[in-house]
Amino acid sequence: MKKQIILFTVLLLGVLHAFGQDVYSCRNANLSFFSSAPLEDIEAKTDKGVAAINAKTGAIYFKVPVNTFQFKKKLMQEHFNENYLETEKYPWAEFKGKLSGPIDCTKNGTYDVTVDGNMTIHGVQKAYTEKGTVTVNNGQLTATCKFNVKLEDHKIKIPTLVIKNIAEVVEVTVNATYIAAATAAK
Amino acid sequence: MKTMRLLCVLLMCCSLSMTSRAQDDLSNMFKDSTTGHQPVTGTFKSTRIIMGHSNETLKKHELDFRVAHRFGDAGGEFGGGKTAFGLDNSSDIRIAFEYGISDNLMVGISRAKGSGDLTQIFEGLAKYRILKQTTDDHMPFSLSVFGNVTVSSMTSSDDLTAASHFDEFTDRMTYVGQAIIARKFGNWLSLTLSPTYVHRNRVGYMDMNNMFALGGSGRIKLSKRLAFIAEYYVPFRDQTSKDYYKSLGVKFFNPLGAGLEIETGGHVFSVNFTNSTAILENQFIPETRSSWLQGQFRWGFNISRRFSLFGKKDWKK
Questions:
Q1: Do B23 and A59 touch (CB under 8 A)?
Q2: Beta partners for A23?
């Protein structure tokens, strides 16, 4: 009986452990992108991204509702959703990947990391390897990453008429502050 | 004892599944997340369909410069080759500046040549978006209301019985109130239903000062930037009025229009055919006297150019 109680306790701890400590999540990740073309600079941002990171295994995940991106010009925002990203058909952009190594969440500091994974935009998946940083600050993680997305890679077509208004390669910036998932769940 | 063993097994399963869940696929954490009640965008490309309004309004600080033109009859007595199928004549022309005060409220002023009882028309209009259809169908349709006031600046007719004889300034005025119910079905089809009320302060003998009408219109997207559009209005003119005009040899027809809409960045072009000669609701609903079947339909176009003003300032807030 005693043995079983010990086993029970150990298992219970195991469950809590798996659920809690290594996984950090974020429900208000900031994403923005910038397109610089001869005639026009276009910028849009959202803070509606969700993200998670497993500090032990290095697994990371990002997801953003594409129609939450806000533009300076509302007509542009409409065209972005209607003509380019087709958000009714493809409402999410998603990234699944892995960090180059584990992060020690008990030690404050900034880690330079390499992220390896697949990103799906406009329903088209592509492999990306990008550099970013993860900052640990008293059990809170902040991840930042800046990378380029070539529109052609995700089958986003730019008509010849606006070729001077929209860049072929768009710079994307991601910024997320994570807290331990168990805390976040509360 | 038995329960304890069962609990242990359960926990073990739980532990295993959670470990795998937490470590291998983080996406499961957000499986339940949705985009929320996001409003449906782009039910129509423009604030107009062919003659009448769509549910769309201009966004805050957007200026829309609009030019609409209706040519002469393509066929029938006044059409045919000698007038280049109506291109030599213009039945109505409207030039407008419209502006978005907020994302849901727009106002505008326009000048129309006018086609019907009154000509030389100035118009003031407002449209407000009350409801927005959402992507998750939390709100299944969109609703906007539109209203306008027109004033004719034409010289008063000497004929005391004419609709264009003005005793007072208010005789020059007409009004339209309209509700536009719209729904976007998937990406390619949008439909509207528009109960409309037209009031004209002064009308000819046996004509109606107040008239209700029901409009219906739709868009079928042929590609991302090209769409087929059509529109139909049924004015409810009472029988005595119809009979009286019939005895004078005048028949009224329901306005029907069909066309193509092309969007290129900030421009929206609509090229269309209509039987109604007028552009404003105040006229084409109660006063359409030309029939498709008698060749009395015409080429027309609407051009809309949208400018975003003060864009930077709004965005930095």
A1: yes
A2: A54
- Which chain A residues in 113-172 lie under 8 Å from chain B, judged by CB atoms? 159, 161-162, 165
Catalogue all structural domains in chain B, each as residue range(s) with its CATH number: 37-309 (2.40.160.40)
Q: What is the pLDDT of residues B150-170, one digit of tens each?
A: 999 999 999 988 999 999 999
Contact A128, A118 (CB under 8 A): yes
What's the token pair of residue A19?
């659920």
What's the whole-model pTM score?
Answer: 0.82
Name the residue of chain A whose CA is nearest to B185's CA: A88
Query: pLDDT tens for residues B242-281?
Result: 999 999 999 999 999 999 999 987 899 999 999 999 999 9
Q: Which residue has the tokens 């239903």?
A: B193
The ipTM assigned to this model is: 0.75
Please identify every stretch of chain A with a pLDDT value under 50, giving residue numbers as ranges. 185-186
* Among chain A residues, CA nearest to B309: A73
For chain B, what is the HEC assignment?
A: CHHHHHHHHHHHHHHHHHHHHHHHCHHHHHCCCCCCCCECCCCCCCCECCCCECCCCCCCCEEEEEEEEEECCCCCCCCCHHHCCCCCCEEEEEEEEEEECCCCEEEEEEEECCCCCCCCEEEEEEEEEEECCECCCCCCCEEEEEEEEEEECCCCCCCCCCCCCCCCHHHHEEEEEEEEEEEEECCCEEEEEEEEEEEECCCCCCCCCEEEEEEEEEEEECCCCEEEEEEEEEEECCHHHHHHHHHCCCCCCCCEEEEEEEEECCEEEEEEEECCCCCCHHHHHHHCCCCHHHCCCEEEEEEEEEEECCHHHHHHC
CA dist B15 to A8, B27, B64, Å? 11, 18, 61
The predicted-structure confidence for B98-152, as pLDDT tens digits, reads as follows 999 999 999 999 999 999 899 999 999 999 999 999 988 899 999 999 999 999 9
B127-159 exposure pattern, b = at least 16 Cβ within 10 A, e = fewer: bbbeebbbbeeeeebbbbebebebebeeeeeee
From A72-76, B198-202, B216-220, B275-279, the region with the lowest mean pLDDT:
A72-76
Which residue among B11, B135, B186 places its CB closest to the CB of A8? B11
Q: Which CATH number fits domain A23-185: 2.40.128.110, 2.30.130.40, 3.20.20.210, 3.40.1280.10?
A: 2.40.128.110
Question: Is it the case that residue B22 has pLDDT exceeding 60?
Answer: no
B306–A75: do the CB atoms touch at under 8 Å?
yes
Residues of A in contact with B312 (CB under 8 A): 72
User: Would the pLDDT of B236 be above 50?
Assistant: yes
Q: Find the closest chain B residue to A5 by CA distance.
A: B4
Provide the residue ranges of all domains of chain A, joining segments of one domain with +.
Answer: 23-185
